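Lesson 9: reading folded outputs for more than one chain in a single document. The general rule is that every protein is listed as its sequence immediately followed by its structure tokens, and records are never interleaved. Here is the first one.
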Amino acid sequence: MRRIVGVDVARGLAVLGMMTAHVGPDDHVPFPPGGFAQLADGRPASLFVVLAGVSLALLSGGRDVATGTRLVQARVRVLVRALLLLGLGELLVLLGTPVAVILPTYGLMFTFGCIALRWSRPALLLGAATFALLGPPLVQALAALLLRGPLNQVVDLAVGHYYPALVWTAYLLVGMAVGRSDLRSPHLRAAGALAGISLVVLGHGGSWVARAVLGWPERLATSAPHSSTTFEVVGNTGVALLVLAGALAAGDRWPRALAPLAAVGSLALTAYTVHVLAIAVLGDVVVRQPTVAGWLAFLGTTVALCWLWASTVGRGPFEWLLHRVSTAAADVGARDEQKEEPTRVG
């Protein structure tokens, strides 16, 4: 599968944005509200999930949805990756860093994405709207009931505070709908940018109207990071579409200049995992008491090492593992599928 520079650039921005949310310095400026550091809270993670949906769509054929044996192989690859991401994520959680690790929920969402591989673009967008509208109140209701019980570790993936899959699957389905389109089309990029601007205004402007004018309660009407309300999902989706549209256009025009950033995107899983390991080694202080120097060191080291690795080795170590294991499992699944097919005599 040929890589698309713009998608890797957008994914690189998402990874660096999540690092900024974890180790970036706090600021206290009047605009934007909460400071510039607040821009990295929640939005890069949602972009990361939107791009995961794009990857699932590309893995299963892009505009030409896979069928037959190819569809079986795609589903096996997605399911195996889901299990590996879930396992890796839980190992990172065990490190005890003050970082909300997204990978376990990522794995759970991949499982649902496997079911949606054959959906059309309208069906994917309808599914995304359903999760965005019904997910937030459902999560709030279920969280109050289920997180008190003995299954809280499992239930947390679906209704937990930071990345509730019942809400965040909306981002995945939007990404899959985008991945079912022609990513090289200028018309798609213009439409994506226009849709992005509209959704940002609708999400954050709608939140203000709901709270200040209509008097809705904060828990339903806020668009604050990780609130997982409909307004936040709409606004974050708009930001993701804007970033992706810009990255696709820039990636076509300046591929060499953006190669270091694209390298981070092509090694996204490795970069994310290593940065959590680095926080575990350096200690909670890099998160609890962040500095500009520490933040720039994380970003600079990540970009430099990813660019060097991508230029000399190619696929990252964790990406290689996911590719190797999932491809081997898909080949076995395809052979089993072919054995079960009845012999046809012409």
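And here is the second record, again sequence then tokens.
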Amino acid sequence: MSNGETLTFDIQKNPNPATASEREALLQNPGFGRIFTDHMVTIRYSQDRGWHSAKIEPRKALALDPATVVLHYAQEIFEGMKAYHLPDGGAALFRPSANARRFHNSAERLAMPTLPEDLFVESVRELVKIDRAWIPTAEGSSLYLRPFMIGTEVALGTKPSAEYIYCVIASPVASFFKGGGSAVTLWLSENYTRAAPGGTGAAKCGGNYAASLSALAEGQREGCDQVVFLDAVEKRWIEELGGMNIFFVFKDGSLQTPPLTGTILPGITRDSLIKLARDTGLTVREEPYSIEQWQADAESGRLSEAFACGTAAVVTPIGKLKGRKHTFTIGDGNAGATTQRLKAALTDIQFGRAPDKNEWLDRLF
């Protein structure tokens, strides 16, 4: 696909899709990321042909040579987004163009070819349309979409791959955390950092998540649900969780979240919540916040709430933080009023229950 050309998807329907009864049974309790739909998107890239061979085809395993670049040098990026069931029986994506831009930026950071943003959006739209029966209708459930790209050249040598495959798979999901809307406990990582200045913190690549797993495992051994990271330089400034951004809510009604300085992911849920909060008259500061100040504010009562946010978990209240040197409770340890109000405002738009004043929904049918 060169400049001025467009790709047409070759649609190959699954000859053995799940039956209606099988699908209904699976949708009763989908969990998160365990069940997958009948189809997937694939688009190939090579240096001589550009983007080509766009397909919607039956979901299947990828065949990779043991010397495939991604297996050795982690040239991989991905996105997370959802399709929502609407009250009138239709469905919509939420801000897909924002995901397309972030995917473009991640590709540039990982020295990968950039997929045209309109092609990214079209690929997701087409997959949801063909697998529309998999969109769950239960309260709080949605169809999670995972676009990703990997380097597929068969070669050993530290250089960008000359070939790539872009894929989109879909998974019906319920709540990310088992406790639903209850407050989670965070583990403060003091031995590990997620990203450093000049690194890949602002890109959505698998290596960032792999780097968080040892800290997450440490936290889980301490009875925590998730881990929160400090900056890599001074090791005192709050950055983000293993896969979510973080907000702090103060007694005066204002909110604060760490600024986008290149070491944390520019979350689309984060950006949406900032807009929604400001639209309701709340003050939102994008400023650094230290672990010492967090504890002092929690103990004095100046800080009344804290929550994490992301596509998968949406908005998750934080009730307690634990660490080797810091252990404290935020507010009464439960979901606060501002957290609940912002979550409701966001999800009401996503599920079509409230006016979409910002034109964030991309209706599919």
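What the second record shows: The first helix runs from residue 20 to 28.
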